[in-house]
Amino acid sequence: MIGAYPSVVVRVVCALLSPFILMFGLYVVAHGHYGPGGGFAGGVFIAVGAILPRLTLPEELAYRLVPPAAGPLAGGVGLLLFLLVGTLPLLVGGSFLDYGAVEIAGLEASRVRYLGILVVEAAVGLAVFGAMVLIVDVLTGKDRP
Amino acid sequence: MIVPLDLVLFLVLIVTAVLALAVKDLLAATALLAAYSLFAALLFAGVLAVDVALVEAALGAGLTGVLFVIAILATTRHSSPRPDARRRWAVLPLIVAFLGLMLFASTGLPDRGDPDAPAQRGVSQTYLADSYADTETPNVVTSLLADYRSMDTLGETMVIVTAALAAALVLIRRVDDPSDRTDDPRDTPGGDADLDRDLGPADEDGYGGRGPR
Lengths: 145, 213
Description:
The complex is a heterodimer. By secondary structure, chain A is mainly α. Helices cover 70% and strands 0% of the residues of chain A. Chain A has helices spanning 8-30, 39-56, 59-65, 70-91, 109-139. In chain A, helix 1 runs antiparallel to helix 2, helix 2 packs parallel to helix 5 and helix 4 packs antiparallel against helix 5. Chain A is elongated and about 60 Å long. The two termini of chain A are 16 Å apart. The relative contact order of chain A is 0.17. By secondary structure, chain B is mainly alpha-helical. Among the domains of chain B are: 1-79, no CATH class; 133-197, no CATH class. Chain B is globular. Residues 181-213 of chain B have low confidence and may be disordered. The chains are: A mainly alpha, B mainly alpha. At the A-B interface, helix 2, helix 4 and helix 5 of A face helix 3, helix 6, helix 7 and helix 8 of B.
Protein backbone atom coordinates (compact mmCIF):
# COMPACT_ATOMS: atom_id res chain seq x y z
CA MET A 1 0.00 0.00 0.00
CA ILE A 2 1.43 3.34 -1.04
CA GLY A 3 -1.31 5.91 -0.58
CA ALA A 4 -1.03 8.58 2.06
CA TYR A 5 -4.63 8.08 3.18
CA PRO A 6 -5.57 4.52 4.19
CA SER A 7 -9.18 5.28 3.30
CA VAL A 8 -11.77 2.50 3.48
CA VAL A 9 -13.74 3.92 0.56
CA VAL A 10 -10.72 3.99 -1.74
CA ARG A 11 -9.70 0.47 -0.73
CA VAL A 12 -13.14 -1.05 -1.21
CA VAL A 13 -13.76 0.70 -4.52
CA CYS A 14 -10.36 -0.30 -5.91
CA ALA A 15 -10.69 -3.89 -4.70
CA LEU A 16 -14.11 -4.15 -6.31
CA LEU A 17 -13.13 -2.43 -9.54
CA SER A 18 -9.81 -4.05 -10.33
CA PRO A 19 -11.17 -7.47 -11.43
CA PHE A 20 -13.61 -5.71 -13.76
CA ILE A 21 -10.81 -3.56 -15.17
CA LEU A 22 -8.79 -6.75 -15.72
CA MET A 23 -11.71 -8.35 -17.51
CA PHE A 24 -12.24 -5.26 -19.65
CA GLY A 25 -8.55 -5.37 -20.56
CA LEU A 26 -8.83 -8.98 -21.69
CA TYR A 27 -11.93 -8.02 -23.67
CA VAL A 28 -10.08 -5.15 -25.38
CA VAL A 29 -7.19 -7.46 -26.32
CA ALA A 30 -9.51 -10.13 -27.70
CA HIS A 31 -11.86 -7.67 -29.39
CA GLY A 32 -9.23 -5.80 -31.40
CA HIS A 33 -10.47 -7.46 -34.60
CA TYR A 34 -13.93 -5.96 -34.37
CA GLY A 35 -13.61 -2.71 -32.51
CA PRO A 36 -11.19 -0.20 -31.08
CA GLY A 37 -8.48 -1.74 -28.99
CA GLY A 38 -5.83 -4.35 -29.36
CA GLY A 39 -2.66 -5.21 -27.56
CA PHE A 40 -1.47 -1.77 -26.49
CA ALA A 41 -4.67 -0.45 -24.92
CA GLY A 42 -5.64 -3.84 -23.54
CA GLY A 43 -2.22 -4.37 -21.99
CA VAL A 44 -2.47 -1.00 -20.29
CA PHE A 45 -5.92 -1.87 -18.90
CA ILE A 46 -4.69 -5.22 -17.58
CA ALA A 47 -1.69 -3.48 -16.02
CA VAL A 48 -4.00 -0.96 -14.31
CA GLY A 49 -6.04 -3.88 -12.96
CA ALA A 50 -2.82 -5.30 -11.49
CA ILE A 51 -1.46 -1.97 -10.23
CA LEU A 52 -4.60 -0.73 -8.44
CA PRO A 53 -4.37 -3.45 -5.74
CA ARG A 54 -0.70 -2.52 -5.24
CA LEU A 55 -1.65 1.06 -4.52
CA THR A 56 -4.51 0.35 -2.15
CA LEU A 57 -4.44 -3.16 -0.68
CA PRO A 58 -2.00 -4.53 1.93
CA GLU A 59 1.26 -5.58 0.33
CA GLU A 60 1.21 -9.31 0.87
CA LEU A 61 -2.31 -9.53 -0.56
CA ALA A 62 -1.48 -7.45 -3.64
CA TYR A 63 1.72 -9.39 -4.30
CA ARG A 64 -0.13 -12.68 -3.96
CA LEU A 65 -2.51 -11.52 -6.71
CA VAL A 66 0.24 -10.44 -9.11
CA PRO A 67 3.76 -11.29 -7.88
CA PRO A 68 6.57 -8.81 -8.63
CA ALA A 69 8.27 -11.38 -10.84
CA ALA A 70 5.27 -11.22 -13.20
CA GLY A 71 6.46 -7.88 -14.66
CA PRO A 72 9.77 -8.87 -16.29
CA LEU A 73 8.45 -12.37 -16.99
CA ALA A 74 5.38 -11.17 -18.90
CA GLY A 75 7.42 -8.58 -20.78
CA GLY A 76 9.96 -11.15 -21.93
CA VAL A 77 7.40 -13.83 -22.75
CA GLY A 78 5.33 -11.36 -24.77
CA LEU A 79 8.28 -10.22 -26.85
CA LEU A 80 9.44 -13.82 -27.34
CA LEU A 81 5.96 -14.88 -28.44
CA PHE A 82 5.87 -12.07 -31.00
CA LEU A 83 9.28 -13.08 -32.37
CA LEU A 84 8.29 -16.76 -32.49
CA VAL A 85 5.11 -15.97 -34.41
CA GLY A 86 7.23 -13.84 -36.73
CA THR A 87 9.79 -16.57 -37.40
CA LEU A 88 7.26 -19.38 -37.83
CA PRO A 89 6.47 -18.44 -41.48
CA LEU A 90 10.22 -18.38 -42.18
CA LEU A 91 10.44 -22.08 -41.41
CA VAL A 92 7.80 -22.98 -44.00
CA GLY A 93 9.20 -20.81 -46.75
CA GLY A 94 7.32 -17.55 -46.25
CA SER A 95 8.75 -14.19 -45.29
CA PHE A 96 9.18 -12.78 -41.80
CA LEU A 97 5.85 -12.00 -40.05
CA ASP A 98 3.79 -13.24 -43.03
CA TYR A 99 1.41 -15.47 -41.07
CA GLY A 100 -0.59 -16.40 -44.15
CA ALA A 101 2.28 -18.55 -45.39
CA VAL A 102 1.75 -21.03 -42.56
CA GLU A 103 -0.58 -23.74 -43.78
CA ILE A 104 -2.94 -25.24 -41.23
CA ALA A 105 -5.18 -28.03 -42.49
CA GLY A 106 -8.79 -26.96 -42.84
CA LEU A 107 -8.08 -23.24 -42.54
CA GLU A 108 -7.84 -20.71 -45.32
CA ALA A 109 -4.89 -18.34 -45.53
CA SER A 110 -7.06 -15.42 -44.43
CA ARG A 111 -8.18 -17.35 -41.35
CA VAL A 112 -4.55 -18.12 -40.48
CA ARG A 113 -3.73 -14.44 -40.75
CA TYR A 114 -6.71 -13.70 -38.49
CA LEU A 115 -5.30 -16.09 -35.88
CA GLY A 116 -1.84 -14.63 -36.35
CA ILE A 117 -3.21 -11.16 -35.60
CA LEU A 118 -4.86 -12.53 -32.45
CA VAL A 119 -1.63 -14.10 -31.20
CA VAL A 120 0.34 -10.95 -32.00
CA GLU A 121 -2.17 -8.78 -30.13
CA ALA A 122 -1.97 -11.08 -27.13
CA ALA A 123 1.83 -10.96 -27.25
CA VAL A 124 1.82 -7.15 -27.43
CA GLY A 125 -0.65 -7.05 -24.53
CA LEU A 126 1.59 -9.31 -22.44
CA ALA A 127 4.65 -7.21 -23.22
CA VAL A 128 2.92 -3.91 -22.38
CA PHE A 129 1.46 -5.37 -19.18
CA GLY A 130 4.90 -6.60 -18.13
CA ALA A 131 6.59 -3.30 -18.91
CA MET A 132 4.06 -1.25 -16.94
CA VAL A 133 4.07 -3.55 -13.89
CA LEU A 134 7.88 -3.63 -13.96
CA ILE A 135 8.12 0.18 -14.00
CA VAL A 136 5.63 0.56 -11.13
CA ASP A 137 7.33 -2.12 -9.04
CA VAL A 138 10.72 -0.53 -9.55
CA LEU A 139 9.39 2.97 -8.75
CA THR A 140 7.83 1.77 -5.50
CA GLY A 141 10.99 -0.10 -4.56
CA LYS A 142 9.28 -3.48 -4.42
CA ASP A 143 11.21 -5.03 -7.28
CA ARG A 144 12.54 -8.05 -5.43
CA PRO A 145 10.22 -10.98 -4.84
CA MET B 1 -23.75 30.99 -32.97
CA ILE B 2 -22.54 27.43 -32.93
CA VAL B 3 -18.94 26.95 -31.85
CA PRO B 4 -17.35 23.81 -33.27
CA LEU B 5 -16.54 21.28 -30.56
CA ASP B 6 -13.01 20.93 -31.93
CA LEU B 7 -12.25 24.60 -31.26
CA VAL B 8 -13.49 24.38 -27.67
CA LEU B 9 -11.44 21.24 -27.08
CA PHE B 10 -8.33 22.82 -28.59
CA LEU B 11 -8.79 25.87 -26.36
CA VAL B 12 -9.18 23.73 -23.23
CA LEU B 13 -6.18 21.67 -24.34
CA ILE B 14 -3.95 24.74 -24.61
CA VAL B 15 -5.22 26.16 -21.30
CA THR B 16 -4.54 22.91 -19.41
CA ALA B 17 -1.07 22.63 -20.97
CA VAL B 18 -0.14 26.20 -20.00
CA LEU B 19 -1.55 25.73 -16.49
CA ALA B 20 0.38 22.48 -16.05
CA LEU B 21 3.56 24.36 -16.89
CA ALA B 22 2.75 27.33 -14.67
CA VAL B 23 1.55 25.61 -11.51
CA LYS B 24 4.11 25.07 -8.73
CA ASP B 25 2.43 22.10 -7.06
CA LEU B 26 3.58 19.03 -8.97
CA LEU B 27 0.55 16.99 -7.90
CA ALA B 28 -1.72 19.63 -9.45
CA ALA B 29 0.47 19.61 -12.56
CA THR B 30 0.00 15.84 -12.79
CA ALA B 31 -3.77 16.20 -12.54
CA LEU B 32 -3.67 18.89 -15.24
CA LEU B 33 -1.60 16.63 -17.49
CA ALA B 34 -4.15 13.84 -17.02
CA ALA B 35 -6.91 16.29 -17.95
CA TYR B 36 -4.87 17.33 -21.00
CA SER B 37 -4.66 13.69 -22.09
CA LEU B 38 -8.39 13.24 -21.56
CA PHE B 39 -9.22 16.22 -23.78
CA ALA B 40 -6.69 14.99 -26.35
CA ALA B 41 -8.48 11.63 -26.29
CA LEU B 42 -11.80 13.42 -26.88
CA LEU B 43 -10.23 15.24 -29.83
CA PHE B 44 -8.99 11.95 -31.29
CA ALA B 45 -12.43 10.43 -30.83
CA GLY B 46 -13.87 13.53 -32.54
CA VAL B 47 -11.90 12.80 -35.72
CA LEU B 48 -12.96 9.12 -35.48
CA ALA B 49 -9.50 7.87 -34.48
CA VAL B 50 -11.05 5.69 -31.80
CA ASP B 51 -8.09 3.34 -31.40
CA VAL B 52 -5.73 6.22 -30.67
CA ALA B 53 -8.31 7.79 -28.35
CA LEU B 54 -8.56 4.57 -26.35
CA VAL B 55 -4.79 4.30 -25.90
CA GLU B 56 -4.51 8.01 -25.06
CA ALA B 57 -7.26 7.76 -22.45
CA ALA B 58 -5.83 4.60 -20.88
CA LEU B 59 -2.17 5.57 -20.95
CA GLY B 60 -2.14 9.35 -20.83
CA ALA B 61 -5.07 10.01 -18.54
CA GLY B 62 -4.70 6.86 -16.47
CA LEU B 63 -1.41 5.09 -16.04
CA THR B 64 0.99 7.98 -16.68
CA GLY B 65 -0.71 9.96 -13.94
CA VAL B 66 -0.28 7.04 -11.55
CA LEU B 67 3.42 6.77 -12.44
CA PHE B 68 3.89 10.52 -11.89
CA VAL B 69 2.09 10.38 -8.53
CA ILE B 70 4.28 7.47 -7.41
CA ALA B 71 7.37 9.41 -8.47
CA ILE B 72 6.13 12.50 -6.56
CA LEU B 73 5.50 10.40 -3.44
CA ALA B 74 9.05 9.08 -3.72
CA THR B 75 10.63 12.52 -4.24
CA THR B 76 9.07 15.92 -3.56
CA ARG B 77 5.81 17.65 -4.30
CA HIS B 78 7.02 21.17 -5.02
CA SER B 79 9.00 22.27 -8.03
CA SER B 80 12.15 24.11 -7.12
CA PRO B 81 12.63 27.61 -8.55
CA ARG B 82 14.96 27.69 -11.51
CA PRO B 83 18.11 29.75 -11.11
CA ASP B 84 17.92 30.96 -14.70
CA ALA B 85 14.33 32.17 -14.47
CA ARG B 86 15.02 35.49 -16.14
CA ARG B 87 17.08 34.12 -18.99
CA ARG B 88 14.18 31.87 -19.98
CA TRP B 89 12.38 34.81 -21.56
CA ALA B 90 15.18 35.02 -24.11
CA VAL B 91 13.81 31.96 -25.90
CA LEU B 92 10.36 33.52 -26.29
CA PRO B 93 11.11 35.05 -29.73
CA LEU B 94 12.43 31.67 -30.85
CA ILE B 95 9.23 29.95 -29.75
CA VAL B 96 7.07 32.57 -31.44
CA ALA B 97 9.11 32.27 -34.64
CA PHE B 98 8.82 28.47 -34.59
CA LEU B 99 5.07 28.72 -33.96
CA GLY B 100 4.74 31.10 -36.92
CA LEU B 101 6.74 28.72 -39.10
CA MET B 102 4.53 25.79 -38.10
CA LEU B 103 1.34 27.78 -38.73
CA PHE B 104 2.69 28.85 -42.12
CA ALA B 105 3.56 25.24 -42.96
CA SER B 106 0.13 24.05 -41.87
CA THR B 107 -1.50 26.12 -44.62
CA GLY B 108 0.04 23.71 -47.14
CA LEU B 109 -1.46 20.62 -45.51
CA PRO B 110 -4.46 18.95 -47.14
CA ASP B 111 -7.85 19.32 -45.49
CA ARG B 112 -9.04 16.70 -43.03
CA GLY B 113 -10.71 13.86 -44.92
CA ASP B 114 -9.56 15.15 -48.30
CA PRO B 115 -9.80 12.18 -50.72
CA ASP B 116 -6.96 13.62 -52.81
CA ALA B 117 -4.54 13.86 -49.89
CA PRO B 118 -1.24 12.04 -50.48
CA ALA B 119 -1.97 9.66 -47.60
CA GLN B 120 -5.15 8.50 -49.34
CA ARG B 121 -3.62 7.79 -52.74
CA GLY B 122 -0.88 5.27 -51.97
CA VAL B 123 -1.20 1.76 -50.62
CA SER B 124 -3.91 2.77 -48.15
CA GLN B 125 -6.60 2.21 -50.80
CA THR B 126 -5.40 -1.36 -51.26
CA TYR B 127 -5.37 -1.97 -47.53
CA LEU B 128 -8.87 -0.58 -47.09
CA ALA B 129 -10.25 -2.59 -49.99
CA ASP B 130 -8.51 -5.92 -49.33
CA SER B 131 -8.27 -6.01 -45.55
CA TYR B 132 -11.36 -8.08 -44.98
CA ALA B 133 -10.65 -10.56 -47.76
CA ASP B 134 -7.02 -10.94 -46.68
CA THR B 135 -7.39 -11.18 -42.93
CA GLU B 136 -11.10 -11.49 -42.04
CA THR B 137 -10.62 -8.49 -39.75
CA PRO B 138 -13.29 -5.78 -39.95
CA ASN B 139 -11.16 -3.28 -38.01
CA VAL B 140 -8.62 -2.12 -40.58
CA VAL B 141 -6.52 -0.44 -37.91
CA THR B 142 -5.90 -3.79 -36.25
CA SER B 143 -5.11 -5.58 -39.49
CA LEU B 144 -2.73 -2.76 -40.42
CA LEU B 145 -0.97 -2.75 -37.06
CA ALA B 146 -0.72 -6.49 -36.56
CA ASP B 147 -0.52 -7.84 -40.11
CA TYR B 148 0.40 -5.46 -42.94
CA ARG B 149 2.75 -3.37 -40.84
CA SER B 150 3.54 -5.82 -38.07
CA MET B 151 7.25 -5.06 -38.37
CA ASP B 152 6.51 -1.59 -36.97
CA THR B 153 4.54 -3.11 -34.13
CA LEU B 154 7.38 -5.50 -33.39
CA GLY B 155 9.73 -2.55 -33.18
CA GLU B 156 7.36 -0.64 -30.88
CA THR B 157 6.99 -3.63 -28.58
CA MET B 158 10.77 -4.00 -28.44
CA VAL B 159 11.08 -0.31 -27.60
CA ILE B 160 8.52 -0.59 -24.78
CA VAL B 161 10.11 -3.67 -23.20
CA THR B 162 13.61 -2.22 -23.58
CA ALA B 163 12.53 1.10 -22.06
CA ALA B 164 10.94 -0.65 -19.08
CA LEU B 165 14.08 -2.75 -18.56
CA ALA B 166 16.28 0.35 -18.81
CA ALA B 167 14.09 2.20 -16.29
CA ALA B 168 14.31 -0.80 -13.97
CA LEU B 169 18.09 -0.95 -14.29
CA VAL B 170 18.39 2.76 -13.50
CA LEU B 171 15.98 2.75 -10.56
CA ILE B 172 16.61 -0.64 -8.98
CA ARG B 173 18.26 -0.67 -5.57
CA ARG B 174 20.75 -3.44 -5.13
CA VAL B 175 21.02 -5.25 -1.85
CA ASP B 176 24.81 -5.15 -1.86
CA ASP B 177 25.08 -1.55 -3.04
CA PRO B 178 27.89 -0.01 -0.93
CA SER B 179 26.53 3.52 -1.38
CA ASP B 180 23.39 2.47 0.47
CA ARG B 181 25.12 1.98 3.78
CA THR B 182 27.45 4.91 3.99
CA ASP B 183 25.85 6.42 7.10
CA ASP B 184 24.20 3.75 9.16
CA PRO B 185 23.13 0.34 7.94
CA ARG B 186 20.04 0.44 10.16
CA ASP B 187 18.77 3.54 8.37
CA THR B 188 18.64 2.21 4.84
CA PRO B 189 15.32 0.39 4.59
CA GLY B 190 12.79 2.68 6.17
CA GLY B 191 14.15 6.16 6.78
CA ASP B 192 11.95 8.04 9.24
CA ALA B 193 10.16 5.05 10.72
CA ASP B 194 13.45 3.52 11.85
CA LEU B 195 14.62 6.86 13.19
CA ASP B 196 11.50 7.21 15.32
CA ARG B 197 11.92 3.73 16.70
CA ASP B 198 15.52 4.48 17.59
CA LEU B 199 14.43 7.56 19.50
CA GLY B 200 11.67 5.64 21.21
CA PRO B 201 12.79 5.86 24.86
CA ALA B 202 13.03 9.66 24.62
CA ASP B 203 9.28 9.82 24.03
CA GLU B 204 8.36 9.88 27.72
CA ASP B 205 7.83 13.62 27.77
CA GLY B 206 5.06 13.33 25.16
CA TYR B 207 6.71 15.50 22.53
CA GLY B 208 6.89 12.75 19.94
CA GLY B 209 10.51 11.85 20.54
CA ARG B 210 11.85 15.05 18.98
CA GLY B 211 12.44 17.01 22.17
CA PRO B 212 10.50 20.05 23.39
CA ARG B 213 9.16 22.37 20.71
